[in-house]
Amino acid sequence: EPEVTQTPSHQVTQMGQEVILRCVPISNHLYFYWYRQILGQKVEFLVSFYNNEISEKSEIFDDQFSVERPDGSNFTLKIRSTKLEDSAMYFCASLDRGYETQYFGPGTRLLVL
Amino acid sequence: QKEVEQDPGPLSVPEGAIVSLNCTYSNSAFQYFMWYRQYSRKGPELLMYTYSSGNKEDGRFTAQVDKSSKYISLFIRDSQPSDSATYLCAMSQFSGGYQKVTFGTGTKLQVIP
After folding, report:
1. Most buried one in A95, B79, B83, B106, CB count within 10 A?
2. Could A50 and B97 be called an inter-chain contact, meaning their C-beta atoms sit closer than 8 Å?
3. Residue A12 — very low, low, confident or very high, per pLDDT cuts 50/70/90?
4. Can you give the pLDDT of all 113 residues of chain B as single tens digits?
């Protein structure tokens, strides 16, 4: 069964450093998403991406965040200057043309020290 | 009022019990109603989704949607210790041609052998 994959599974970084989280969505999906889940809290929407541009972003997705689809398979989330409060699980999700449901990757656990 | 309300639990039940998990919502624009299961430190795994009011059954799981009351439920029959996880309700709407998903906080379920 096709699945969304994410790398790395864990990332530890120093405050102020840049991190890039990578996702490979399901191959025929067209809509891509990033979510964040701070430990013990709800899953929060960050950004949606379609046709090589951002469709919508939440108030969390400020100027330190960016997304890119550099090739036909990868979808990345970049955090330019990480803060302690960026420590969370980051989930990528993708959706096919049928507008049914999003399928989530296993997540990247980011720890900012 | 939050868009999606879900009792965080925890909910402890003996093995074999019927489990009832519920969410309420306030946004009438929600069109799809999903239940995800999330094991500790893992990504959300789609269990079931429904589009309209009524029941949908899949094995031991039954999802129920009552749009008039803005209330959704997930029933688990013959609960097993392996069902111990956090269950997230999620609801989606379409805005500008793309899907936006809003999650509940999740209910932590423990099934005791």
Report:
1. B106
2. yes
3. very high
4. 678 999 888 999 999 999 999 999 999 989 889 999 999 878 888 899 888 888 999 999 999 999 999 999 999 999 999 999 999 999 988 766 667 789 999 999 999 99
Query: Per the CB < 8 Å rule, is B104 touching A42?
Result: yes
For residue B43, give how far its alpha carbon lies from the nearest alpha carbon of chain A (Å).
4
Contacts of A52 in chain B (CB under 8 A): none
- Give the type of residue at B10: P
Question: What pLDDT is attached to residue B90?
Answer: 93
> Do residues A21 and A6 touch, judged by C-beta distance below 8 A?
yes
What contacts A105, CB < 8 A, 6 or more positions away? A3, A4, A5, A6, A23, A91, A92, A93, B43
Tell me which H or E stretch contains A55.
Answer: strand A53-57
In chain B, which among 59-98 make CB contacts under 8 A with chain A? 88, 90, 92, 94-98
Instruction: Name B64's Cβ contacts closer than 8 Å, sequence gap at least 6.
Output: B54, B55, B56, B72, B73, B74, B75
Instruction: Look up tokens 């990504």; give the residue.
Output: B43
Q: Which residues of B touch A24 (CB under 8 A)?
A: none
Contact between chains at B43 and A42 (C-beta distance less than 8 A): no
The DSSP symbol for A84 reads G
